[in-house]
Amino acid sequence: MMSRPPIARMMRIHEELKKNHYPNCYKLAREIEVNPRTIARDVEFMRYSLNLPIEYDKQKHGYYYSAPVQNFPALALSEKELFSLLVAQKSIEQYKGTPYYKPLEDAFKKITGFLGNDVYYYVKDVEDIIKFRPFMPETVEESLFEKIQTAIYNKKVVSFEYNKLGSKNSTNRNVQPYCLVCADNHWYLIGFDETRQAIRTFSLPRMNNLSITNRSFKKDKKFNLDEYLKGSLGIFKGNADYEIVIELDKWGADFLKGRSLHESQKLTYLPDGRARLELRLNSIEEIERWVMSMGVHATVVKPKILAERIVKNIIALSDKYQLYNQPMMLNEQSEYLNLPGINIS
Fold first, then answer.
1. Which of 13, 73, 120, 259 has the maximal Cβ count within 10 Å?
2. pLDDT in tens, 150-164
């Protein structure tokens, strides 16, 4: 069982002392569900680091305050630590729509409550300096989150209906849930699909009628999430091995400066301001979308299949957006192979 955070334990001890309940290590340990030695260390910290007047009454077998104490001492934080705390508080905006948001928000309110008035006004003064604006944040039913978390913790198989992207019909899945992953502001469940006998990734908003079965499972000890997603740009995993080479014009090179697409990324800047991006991935779906988002600023050099998929997308888009209703003549003899940003040689 996980113990409460130290500050929560010490606040509980402080309240007991203020009420003259004469608590001792064993009594507090039973109530808070920790080891008595943990309580003893908390008391020592409160006595010597926070300078609280804690004494022990041998007759009543408990601790007490030997002098009046009104409030728990404010935490001493540097300006750098306070600013970091503020950044962390702002970052919880990306968890809106999940069951983590409210507890995190409440926790930060409690923490700032320990910091004193001076710190409170400092936080108010600088809170507009940093803002987080997550792109397309996902809203997931809290009950779904809680069920999946419970199933993961208790190692129980889950059953649900799943709709794949673009599919009209759903399929029934029985999955051994391994972990929840947030990638690009979207939530996924990674687990062992019993029907397909393989590890699969499921988008939470496309899961319906999830229930926790009575069947237990043993997680594969060899499974490691970082290793599993090592060759993925985000969350999609393939079984191939692609050497990705993309040339960026000066705008694209400047745009990517200081950013990391993948741990295998190698970015070489050329004398004329352009750059050459090299990656090693096991799938091309996500890098395909990224190249499309860069428009004419990115040119695919390798692999050929990626460049061909970009061309197909351009042809499909040209059919939808015919300029002034005039069909664009895109075929093997036309100029589409020379469009900026495309290179299938």
1. 13
2. 999 999 999 999 998
